[in-house]
Write a structure and sequence with these properties.
By secondary structure, this protein is of the alpha/beta class. 23% of the residues lie in helices and 29% in strands. The structure holds adenosine monophosphate (AMP) and magnesium ion.
């Protein structure tokens, strides 16, 4: 990978969030995206495909709808009954058609047929007048004004939504509930998806304590592996938990080499900040090509990104993200840099989460020249308008601020202080 180049360019300076994202996307696109080896496929029953990534265009085997049918509960008739001048029509209803298989009765001039939504349209009918615009007269005739319906209305045509052989869902789609319903509506019971990217996670730090141990003085519980694991599982990745690794070159080297045997991606947290980075850097030089970046952002300034050399058991290099140790910084950098990269590696298209402008209910202090990710709560004010406020203290170690938040307030690189009522992106 060409991380050295990226590294040289940015080492002396702070890298902007936008440039860091672009550098990661470019490196992944040029090194992995076209590599078929990286993207293994598997076929799964439809109900196991939620959140997985479609491996090829899904072509419809049928026309949708499969038959001409009625879009309304009403009366089907031939539009030749309608004239240019509005007039009252009186038609003889010959039967009722329900959705499902029915006998096709011929509907002759002066006649109509009661149709329920989804009922097959008789060949001689092309228009349905909705029931609510009609009256049934005492003599049984159905009466309505000709200006309540135009020729062809409320008639769904065969193949109108989708024609047989056309793509219903495109390759690279992260499958959502509607996609699974759509596949089912075409009679498709299994899908070819990409195998889940294998992501190894590890926490580095001498102070870290496993949650199953009791907390000795000076130690802290390792929370990063749990927030990271959950982020990854929600994203549909396969997680390999490599535990806590102590801050010494031998243990770290061993852990990285072991992880790179099976994982497509390794994500570590901690050990990339000033001081510790020098030593991680040295080790990474042996194992692959990794850039150590200072990013103009808060929280989450230090980050390492690159690749580890292919091993005897795996011919592709392993992508490496070295995230900062602070629990909030881990999640911010995950969402800003790792999430999209993983989806991209796993073959997904269109992975960006949209930003939406909302009025800030509060003033926020912000320095220009870096991107800030405040934890926010979007809420409805008493007038029913959506607004956003921050979740109190914003320290990078305060995980509660993430837990209480329902969004990030993204204060862009060049933005300064925010006054109450200003628009901000969330
Ligand atoms: P570092 O980047 O290693 O200097 O860590 C920055 C801060 O995050 C320190 O206060 C660490 O104790 C803390 N930290 C590092 N790793 C973890 C972890 N896995 N869980 C919770 N806090 C951590
Ligand atoms: Mg540390």
């Amino acid at each position: 990978m060409e991380t050295n180049k990226a590294n040289q360019e940015f080492q002396s300076d702070f890298l902007s969030v936008t440039d860091a994202r672009q550098a990661i996307a470019d490196l992944i696109a040029s090194n992995y995206e076209s590599s078929a080896m990286h993207l293994r496929k598997e076929t799964l029953p439809l109900h196991q495909c939620l959140g997985r990534i479609l491996a090829g265009d899904l072509l419809s085997p049928i026309d949708v709808p499969a038959h001409d049918n009625s879009a309304m509960d009403g009366y089907a008739f031939n539009s030749s009954e309608l004239s240019d001048d509005p007039q009252n029509l009186e038609l003889t209803n010959i039967a009722t058609l329900h959705a499902g298989p029915t006998q096709m009765l011929p509907v002759k001039p002066g006649q109509c047929i009661k149709t329920m939504t989804g009922a097959l349209m008789p060949a001689t009918c092309d228009t349905v007048v909705p029931q609510e615009f009609t009256m049934t007269l005492s003599n049984g005739l159905v009466s309505f004004s000709s200006d309540v319906v135009r020729a062809g209305e409320n008639h769904r045509l065969r193949g109108e939504d989708l024609q047989s052989g056309k793509a219903a869902i495109l390759q690279g789609r992260i499958l959502r509930p509607a996609d699974l319903g759509l596949a089912a509506s075409l009679g498709i019971h299994q899908l070819e998806v990409y195998q889940r990217t294998k992501v190894a996670i590890l926490s580095s730090g001498n102070e870290l304590c496993d949650i199953h141990e009791s907390l000795a003085p000076g130690r802290i519980f390792d929370s990063n592996r749990y927030s990271l694991r959950a982020c990854l599982e929600r994203l549909g990745m396969e997680v390999i938990d490599c535990g806590i690794v102590r801050d010494n070159p031998d243990d770290l080297r061993r852990a990285f080499i072991a992880a790179a045997q099976t994982a497509d991606v390794i994500i570590s947290s901690g050990g990339v900040s000033v001081g510790e980075a020098d030593f991680t850097k040295q080790m990474m030089e042996e194992l692959g090509e990794v850039g150590f970046w200072k990013i103009a952002m808060r929280p989450g300034r230090p980050m390492a990104f690159g690749s580890l050399k292919p091993s005897s058991s795996k011919s592709t290099p392993t992508v490496f993200f070295g995230l900062p140790g602070n629990p909030v910084a881990v999640m911010v950098t995950f969402y800003q840099f790792v999430r999209n990269a993983l989806l991209q590696l796993n073959g997904a298209k269109r992975v960006e989460i949209p930003l939406l402008p909302v009025r800030s209910a509060v003033g926020i202090r912000k320095k220009s020249g870096r991107t800030e990710f405040q934890r926010g709560i979007v809420f409805q004010d008493p007038q029913g308008q959506w607004a956003v406020k921050t979740t109190g203290s914003q320290g990078a170690e305060i995980l509660r601020s993430m837990s209480e938040a329902n969004c990030f307030i993204i204060l862009h690189h060049d933005q300064g202080n925010i006054e109450p009522g200003d628009w901000v992106d969330v």
